[in-house]
Design a protein that fits this description.
With 524 residues, the protein is mainly alpha-helical. Helices cover 65% and strands 5% of the residues.
Length: 524
């Protein structure tokens, strides 16, 4: 019987029967692939509020910077109409105008520097808090969530998505200044010459019409880019973690071809996203040219008819050019905001994942336990419709050694996971010293129950730090005694730096047997 499967990039395409690389559209996409959520801003504001004083100062600096930007064309207008063209203006008025111009430029620079520095510092602190909150939450979520979530996708949220929110925060302050500048320019132009101002602004409705067509398509493109980026990262992480299996089965070329499919889909999504992000810029530039042409033709005619001062026309040209700068900037920043909204939703969905396994209000936290273990009619399965353990009952007395023997998938590892309460039983109960494990504090179970895996996980750091990972208060003497009990002391001392020997990632500079001995010592 032959089998085929369809790719995520092309559901209608059929591949030969071979394993895929990384994730397809899976349960993880159900969790993280939802639409944009405007409520993200309110959630993100909770992390910004502790730094609101700094934000207020930065916004004040933005207002000063914007006021300086608005003042420059007015100073130039004054210099032209009163010092250069008007009779009797003289050198004194020109010197005054130049002095005012220099002062405004200096204020402009100082305010801009203060704004950039404060926004940058605040952004780094807020993102540090957010990333720390995500890490702390992920340390405590139920393993049922981690079982169905790929490491690469989670790293995409901890790094790429968090950075998108940082970019959003920093650009939000700039967007505030752009909005103030925009309204300021409109007010000044209408004040200088109401008719010419209205005529100049007549090109703006065209921009809003184009934006109405652009916006919904841009949203879809930005969302798809983030989703394919997450899928691609998941496939990449899986390929790195499984490199031993891949090389052992000579799958390099096949996996490369399969990974190329995801990379190509990711590339197409990002190119489409970039196209929508940039398409508004030339449109804004075209409208800028049209507005300036209106000022030159209509304003020039009014100047020739002595109905408009030359300085006012020059100021209009400056304001028209500056008017579309914030529009252009806001268009780009809107793209940033859309990406940040998608990223923020995925981040807060992680933070909203329920812990599922939490301590009861009156959870027991004993200093010591005797160690009597009893399973009473325990039922359990990782999926409700696929039970692994059915009405399992047995007793292990203190000091007794029990071996669980059975075929792969019979539930041996699941039994040890239930004792540690990595998962909760779906029926029955597990007792330690006659007390249900659900009545113990999680800290108590972690202190009194130790698990040694067949393929132990060792952390980057010294052997000493790895052995006392379970009990951080352990002394060097305690570490050496535990190592002697399991027979690890001799090989540790034979290493060049003994207990201070630094382990490579997951302890791969040691043999499997040596890693298991360290894991036994850590459990003690």
């Amino acid at each position: 019987m032959s089998s085929t499967f369809r790719t995520a990039a092309d559901p209608n395409a059929v591949r030969p029967p071979r394993a895929v690389v990384g994730s397809q559209i899976s349960q993880d996409e159900v969790i993280f692939g939802a639409a944009f959520d405007r409520k993200v801003v309110r959630r993100f504001a909770q992390y910004v509020l502790p730094y609101r004083k700094t934000i207020y100062i930065a916004m004040a600096a933005v207002l000063v910077f914007t006021a300086a930007q608005l003042s420059i064309p007015l100073v130039i207008r004054y210099a032209i109409d009163n010092a250069l063209i008007a009779d009797g203006g003289g050198r004194a008025l020109l010197v005054l105008a130049v002095s005012a111009f220099v002062a405004i430029v200096m204020v402009n620079y100082a305010a801009n520097y203060l704004q950039d520095r404060l926004v940058g510092l605040t952004g780094e602190r807020v993102i540090f808090d957010l990333r720390s909150a995500m890490y702390a939450h992920l340390q405590n979520v139920a393993l049922t969530f981690m079982d169905r979530t790929e490491v690469g996708r989670m790293m995409s949220r901890l790094q790429g998505d968090v950075n998108s929110l940082q970019e959003f925060l920093e650009n939000s302050i700039t967007a505030f200044g752009d909005l103030v500048l925009l309204f300021g320019i409109v007010i000044i132009m209408l004040t200088l010459n109401f008719e010419l101002g209205l005529l100049t602004l007549s090109v703006v409705p065209t921009l809003f019409f184009v934006r109405m067509i652009w916006l919904p398509r841009a949203r879809i493109a930005f969302r798809r880019a983030r989703e394919t980026n997450s899928i691609n990262n998941g496939a990449l992480a899986e390929g790195i973690h499984s490199v031993r299996t891949v090389q052992g089965m000579h799958r390099e070329s096949v996996n490369l071809e399969l990974y190329a499919d995801k990379s190509q889909e990711n590339l197409r999504a990002h190119l489409r996203s970039a196209k929508f992000a940039q398409v508004m810029v030339p449109i804004v530039d075209t409208l800028t040219g049209a507005a300036m042409a209106i000022v030159v033709v209509v304003g020039g005619t009014l100047v020739l008819d002595k109905a408009l001062d030359v300085g006012v026309m020059v100021a209009f040209l400056f304001y028209v050019q500056r008017f579309f700068d914030p529009i252009r900037s806001l268009t780009i920043q809107y793209s940033v905001m859309q990406r940040a909204m998608a990223s923020g939703q995925r981040i807060f969905e992680v933070l909203d994942v329920p812990l599922e396994i939490v301590d009861k209000p009156n959870a027991v936290n004993p200093e010591a336990v005797k160690g009597r273990l009893e399973f009473c009619n325990v039922n359990f399965g990782y999926h409700k419709d696929q039970p692994i353990l059915k009405d399992l009952s047995f007793v292990v007395e203190p000091g007794e050694t029990v071996a669980l023997v059975g075929p792969t998938g019979s539930g041996k590892t699941s039994i040890t996971a239930l004792i540690n309460r990595f998962y909760d039983v779906s029926g029955g109960k597990i007792l330690i010293d006659g007390l249900d494990v659900r009545d113990y504090a999680k800290a108590a179970l972690g202190r009194h129950v130790a698990m040694v895996l067949q393929d132990p996980f060792l952390f980057t750091g010294s052997i000493f730090e790895n052995i006392r990972y379970h009990k951080t208060e352990a002394t060097k003497k305690d570490i050496e005694e535990a190592s002697k009990i399991v027979g690890a002391h001799e090989f540790i001392m034979a290493l060049p730096f003994g207990y201070d020997t630094v382990l490579e990632q997951q302890g791969h500079n040691l043999s499997m047997g040596q890693r298991q001995l360290l894991s036994f010592a850590r459990a003690l």
